[in-house]
Amino acid sequence: MSVVAQLELHALDPQFELAELTERARGDGAIVSFVGLARSEATDGEAVDALVLEHHPTLTRQSLEEIAVACAQRFDVSHVRVVHRSGVIPAGEPIVFAGAASVHRRAAFLAADYLMDRLKTEAVFWKREIGDKGSTWIEPTQDDCADRDRWG
Q: Which residues pair with 85 in a beta bridge?
C-alpha cells in the first residue's frame, strides 16, 4: 500500500504522475485517474485567463494528506496518488491529478471519485479566477458540497 499526497508549486505533468502510479501498481488489475484542468470560462460565462490557488504551507499539505489517507482506508485500493498544483495556473493547464489502483476496477473508480469530491470542497486553498473583469474569489458550489456529502 502506498499513499502519496503532494503539493506542486510548478507545472503538473499528468503523464509523469500516471507513470509513477502505474509503477507502484504492478500486479493490480485497475488504475483510475482524473486530471482537473483550469477552465477558460467562469460559471457566469466570463472569460478566465488563469486560476490562482493560494495555499498555506502546512495546512494545505496536511489537508491533501488527510484526504488521500482517508481514501486509502475507506476503499479496497492498493495505491492512492494525489498531486495538487498551487500558484498561478493558466487556463487549460492541469490543476490536479488524483488516482487510485486496486485489484478490481470498482474500488479504483469509487476511490478516484471520492478523492475529487473531497479535494474540491476540503483541500485548503484560496481560489480566485483572473479574467477581463479582474480577480474574483471562488468557493465550492452547492453541487460540489452535495457530491461530497453523499459519501457520508
A: 8
C-alpha distances (whole Å) from 64 to each of 28, 101, 104, 120, 134 are 24, 18, 25, 11, 29
- Residue stretches of the chain with pLDDT short of 70: none
Angstrom distance (rounded) from CA 96 to CA 34:
8
- At which residue does the C-alpha cell 482537473 appear? 36
For 132-142, what is each residue's pLDDT tens digit? 889 999 999 99
Strand order in the sheet with 30-37: 2-8, 79-85, 94-102, 30-37
pTM over 0.70? The answer is yes
Cell, residue 106: 470498482
Distance CA 48, CA 65 (A): 29
